[in-house]
Design goal:
alpha/beta; FAD/NAD(P)-binding domain; eight-stranded mixed beta sheet; binds flavin-adenine dinucleotide
Length: about 350
């Protein structure tokens, strides 16, 4: 049995804890604010490596993770008995192009013109000339997902230490000796750092918060059945009629709160893309902090300390990347298989 202590109970920490536990490890998760405003709670839950225009090895990583989703969700549902709104609804990525560009786009096998776009999703704004249709992309309800992960973790007897703040990772030469926390010392064989945008508070890694403001409206008619991923905003319909609209991208540190300008920007863009939103009731506004790295690639695997494993920097796609992150870290910890995107690569 390996004892592993995971710092951070967002999607990355919990998914990894569950994967490790299912391989026989004895896992504890320490989280200061389970019901708080981590990125996992704040996200839109899109599973969208193509719409997000990821490139190279990161696109490959995202597509592998997207393919893992159905089975990953089935395992969580089996453990928890909960549904988390996984929905492969497809993504329409509208294009606002002139006719010359439209002719060029016709060569792309995923490009559809305005008429075909309307068949895929009616009611889009007039300025949309065509779109990319991405049928393999979709969404999960990230707030339900976090609850599901918690129930699944508890069903596996993973210890969740709630309301405990980790102040410091104590090290002696190349090993972590213990954590200094609001509940005293915590000790384990190995430690996983999964603290999202707050990582730099514990270790000098190149991760910083990029704020995203969001809002939701209620769609009584439930006409919107696809995620709309426009150049200026995205619109994500949940199965219960909630529509999530996001998101701003702001380099303002950990500044709390929604701003009038942020919400105005989102609403103007969303109404231009899907005009019916103008008459829908606003149900909520919120914000969150994406864990950004300078090359927008996560930091995974070994660190300078032999018993400290890094799992952070998932930036805009951590919900998408959770299944593959959990698998690769488990392969690394249990079987010693090296991870891609290691800190010292
Ligand atoms: C507005 C917005 C929209 C997004 N939309 C999408 C999307 O559509 N699709 C997608 O795939 N991704 C999306 N993301 C990105 C995604 O949410 C993140 O990449 C992902 O949630 C990161 O997960 P995490 O577990 O690393 O971080 P978090 O969910 O932030 O979890 C980290 C946890 O660590 C805890 N913690 C930190 N420091 C300490 C400490 N010292 N002691 C104890 N606990 C600590 C925090 O309380 C937190 O709960 C979005 C993010 C935002 C903000």
């Amino acid at each position: 049995m390996t004892d592993v202590l995971v710092i951070g109970g967002g999607v990355i920490g919990l998914a990894t804890a569950i994967a490790l536990s299912q391989k026989g490890a004895n896992v504890t998760v320490v989280e200061r604010d389970l019901c708080g405003h981590g990125a996992t709670w704040a996200a839109a839950g899109m599973l969208a490596p193509e719409a997000e225009r990821l490139e190279g090895s990161l696109l490959e990583f995202g597509i592998r993770s997207r393919k893992m989703y159905p089975q990953w969700i089935a395992n969580l549902m089996r453990l928890s008995g909960q549904d988390c709104g996984y929905w492969c609804c497809g993504i329409v990525a509208p294009i606002l192009a002139d006719s010359a560009e439209c002719d060029r786009l016709l060569q792309h096998h995923k490009y559809i013109d305005r008429e075909q776009t309307d068949k895929c999703q009616s009611g889009l704004g007039e300025s949309i000339t065509g779109s990319f249709w991405l049928p393999e992309e979709g969404q999960v309800n990230n707030r339900k997902l976090i609850q599901t992960l918690l129930i699944a973790a508890r069903s596996l007897s993973i210890k969740i230490l709630e309301g405990i703040n980790v102040y410091q990772i104590e090290r002696d030469r190349n090993r972590v000796t213990h954590l200094d926390t609001s509940a005293g010392k915590l000790q384990s064989d190995r430690y996983i750092l999964a603290t999202g945008a707050w990582t730099r508070c514990l270790l000098p890694l190149p991760v910083k918060p990029i704020k995203g403001q969001m809002l939701s409206v209620y769609d009584r008619d439930r006409q919107l059945q696809r995620v709309i991923f426009a150049p200026t905003c995205y619109i994500v319909p949940r199965q219960d009629g909630t529509i999530v609209i996001g998101a701003t991208v702001e380099d303002t540190g950990f500044t709390q709160g929604n701003t009038a300008a942020g919400i105005m920007h989102l609403l103007n863009n969303a109404i231009a893309v899907y005009p019916a939103i103008a008459n829908m009731q606003i149900t909520e506004t919120w914000w969150g902090f994406r864990p950004y790295t300078p090359n927008e690639i996560p930091l995974l695997g070994a660190s300078d300390y032999e018993n400290l494993i890094i799992a952070t920097g998932h930036y805009r796609n951590g919900i998408l990347f959770a299944p593959i992150t959990a698998k690769l870290l488990t392969d690394f910890i249990i079987d010693g298989i090296p991870t891609p995107f290691a800190v010292n690569d």
